[in-house]
Design goal:
Elements lengths: L2 H8 L7 H5 L4 H16 L3 H7 L2 H16 L11 H8 L7 H13 L3 E5 L7 E5 L1 H21 L6 H4 L3 H23 L2 H7 L4 H14 L5 E2 L3 H8 L3 H13 L3 E5 L4 E4 L1 H29 L6
Helix pairs in contact: 3-8, 3-12, 5-6, 5-7, 5-10, 8-15, 10-15, 11-12, 13-14
C-alpha cells in the first residue's frame, strides 16, 4: 500500500510513525502497559491460548472478524465463505488450505464461528463469527490500543477502549483494506515469527518479557518452564524447546536450567519493540480511517 493510499484512507498524513514510536521516551512504559493488558486477555484461559495464539490460528480468527464485518449481502463477491478466507490468508502464507479447513471446523465446534446457508443463495455456506468471538476481539483490540494511549494521550481512542460494539464493526470493516499492509509489517520482523509460529509462543514471549521488566536484575527473567506451560496450556518440554530455539537464534541466553535465569538479549528487545511499533502504527491508521469513513470532517 502506497503512502498516498494511506493518506486517502485517513484523510491526511499519518499522525504517528514507526520510527517515532521506537524513539519515544515512554516506549518502555507503553510496552509494559501492552504486556499487562495482553496477559489479562489470555492469562486465565489456556484453552483460548491453544485455540488462537499461533500465527495461522490467529490469522484465521482475525481475518474472519474482518471479512464478516466487510461483507455486503447484496454483493456476492464480498460474502464471507471459506474460499474467501483462504484467498485472504494467502497474503500471509502461514497456513495451507487443509489447515484452514481444520481451524474453521475447530472454531465452529467450540462456538466461535457458525457455518450457515446464505439468505440470498441457500446453496452457498457463509461463515459467521459468534458474539463470543467478537467479544474476544474487542478485548484483544483494547490490549493493542492501550500502548497508544500511553504514548499519545492527546489522541482519542475512546471508542475502542470503551468497546463500542458499533464502532468495532466499522473498525474491522476498515481493516480489510489494510490487510496487505499488515502482512508487510508482520513479515518485517522475522525474529518474532520464531515465537508466532509455535503454539502459545507469543504468550510465552509476553510472559518472559513481562517478568524481565519486573525483575530487579533486568534484563534477566526467571520463568519456570513448568509454570509457564501450565499458564498457557502447553508442556514444559514445548516451552523449553521454544526458548532453546530462541537461544540458538541469538535472542536469549539460558543461564540456569529450567528457566530460572534467562537473559533477554538486546536483539530480542529491539525486535519486539519494532513489532509492537508496527502494530501501533497500523492500529492508529485503522482508527483514523474508520473515523474518516464515519465522520470525514471530524477526523483530526
Amino acid at each position: 500500500m502506497e503512502e498516498a493510499e494511506v493518506e486517502r484512507l485517513i484523510g491526511g498524513a499519518p499522525r504517528v510513525g514507526v520510527e517515532g514510536i521506537l524513539t519515544h521516551p515512554l516506549l518502555p512504559k507503553a510496552r509494559k502497559f501492552y504486556l499487562d493488558r495482553l496477559l489479562d486477555v489470555y492469562e486465565d484461559d489456556p484453552f483460548l491460548v491453544r485455540l488462537l495464539v499461533e500465527s495461522g490460528r490467529f490469522l484465521v480468527y482475525m481475518i474472519a472478524v474482518v471479512l464478516d464485518a466487510a461483507q455486503d449481502p447484496a454483493r456476492r463477491e464480498t460474502w464471507f465463505t471459506v474460499g474467501r478466507l483462504k484467498q485472504q490468508m494467502a497474503l500471509f502464507g502461514l497456513a495451507s488450505d487443509r489447515q484452514i479447513d481444520h481451524l474453521v471446523r475447530r472454531l465452529c465446534s467450540v462456538g466461535f464461528m457458525e457455518l450457515i446457508s446464505s439468505d440470498q443463495d441457500r446453496r452457498v455456506r457463509i461463515l459467521k463469527p459468534t458474539e463470543k468471538l467478537r467479544a474476544h476481539d474487542r478485548d484483544w483490540l483494547v490490549a493493542h490500543y492501550a500502548p497508544l494511549t500511553v504514548l499519545y494521550p492527546q489522541h482519542d481512542y475512546g471508542l475502542v477502549m470503551r468497546q463500542d460494539a458499533e464502532f468495532h464493526v466499522a473498525l474491522r470493516r476498515t481493516a480489510l483494506t489494510l490487510l496487505p499492509l499488515a502482512a508487510k509489517y508482520l513479515m518485517a520482523v522475522p525474529d518474532m515469527m520464531l515465537f508466532f509460529d509455535r503454539a502459545a509462543g507469543h504468550m510465552v514471549l509476553a510472559a518472559l518479557l513481562h517478568a524481565a521488566m519486573a525483575h530487579p536484575d533486568h534484563p534477566h527473567a526467571a520463568v519456570s518452564y513448568a509454570d509457564i506451560g501450565d499458564r498457557f496450556g502447553v508442556s514444559r518440554t514445548h516451552v523449553r524447546a521454544l526458548l532453546v530455539a530462541a537461544e540458538e537464534a541469538g535472542l536469549v541466553k539460558l543461564e540456569v536450567r529450567g528457566g530460572h535465569r534467562i537473559e533477554i538479549l538486546p536483539r530480542l528487545w529491539a525486535s519486539y519493540d519494532r513489532g509492537i511499533a508496527g502494530g501501533m502504527y497500523l492500529h492508529d491508521i485503522a482508527y483514523l480511517a474508520t473515523m474518516h469513513s464515519i465522520r470525514p470532517r471530524e477526523t483530526t
